[in-house]
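pasting ABC transporter substrate-binding protein for the record, 419 residues
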Amino acid sequence: MKKAVALFSLSAAILASSHAGAVTVTLACGDVGLELKMCKEGAARWAKKTGNTVKVFESPKLTNDRLGLYQQQLAAKSSDIDVYQLDVVWPGLLAQHFVDLTGKVPASEVNAHFKGIIDANTVNGKLVALPWFTDAGLLYYRTDLLKKYGFKAAPKTWTELALMAKKIQDGERKTNSAFSGFVWQGKNYEGLTCDAMEWLVSFGGGTIVDSTGKITINNAQAAKALDTAASWVKSISPAGVTTYDEEAARGIFQAGNAAFMRNWPYAWALGQGKDSKVAGKIGVAPLPSGGARNAATLGGWQLGVSSYSKNQDAAISLVRYLTSPEEQKIRAIQGTYNPTLPALYKDKDILAKNPFFGSLYSVFTSAVARPSAPTKLKYNQVSQAFSTAVSDVLNGKMKGQQAVAKLATDLARIKGRGW
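structre below
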């Protein structure tokens, strides 16, 4: 561990801005869970070390809204934001607007991150951003309720989950009419793309578009996956689940009103908080299999420096600092943000606070990427078309087979002569 940290020892020369005097760097931060609070605290630590000032720009909660705002800023070549927080699927969309960090960040620092995430941030040889934290979908469950209803372990398949959720829900509703078996992200946005990707892959239904760019969504297993998810609505999941994002699902689970929840790792720290009614009663497991495999969608966020920044040296210094082992360790312990540095998964302090980081390490390292690489600049259109098709099935507007057939036609139109 000492060696890994040493790789990131930021010298006074690097931390100090090369500009004459102190400068102000504007950092765009997300606002889901503890995200904004921890972003501000990390930025403040850098500011104290360097004498510079950080202004935090609060981004919209929903990733789709955030991307739209970023695209407006970047298209206008605005210098208002120096450092952007980027979703792992955005580098291909936004690469032209960001500084190439190759050569500006020592190779030892770059190579200390998971190779797959560095690859996702590299577009045509250009390192668009540095990884800040990684994500993968997880299954949260109430350990006390599984025991109460005679279940010895978390469900291994979606069929098992449905049966367990129904039994627990029926029992708990005798004293709590608001109780649900399973909550997840069903709102029509990027979060639904993530959830539905997990269903597809777990049933053996492919990844919408394969690595060569071929449209693969129109198949029986993909249709079955969507129909299965639709069967949960108004059964083990509330009717309102089709409007839930991450925070809506977390709020219900954390209030003690659900047996199971699909969410990202950040929910763990909040679930153990003082205001949580389920603190000490939460278990974490891989998401169930649909018969093919367990599947978790790769998520995570990176930090990139805008090409239009007037303080690029200071902005790069801030990015290096925030993505360092010291900062990633703080974020892992206090906010359950998964490090992008393999060495930190052996850190005893991190594992003591987040025991599942060790046991579910393979979930994070084998997470399934959304098809942003093969669809390039058209990924956002692909994702929106996919989440809309899934939403139509969840809301009973069409069956899975009809939806995947229509989606294949829509994607062919988006593809046109190529991605």
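The first strand starts at residue 24 and ends at 29.
The chain has two domains: 2-135+299-365, 138-295+371-415.
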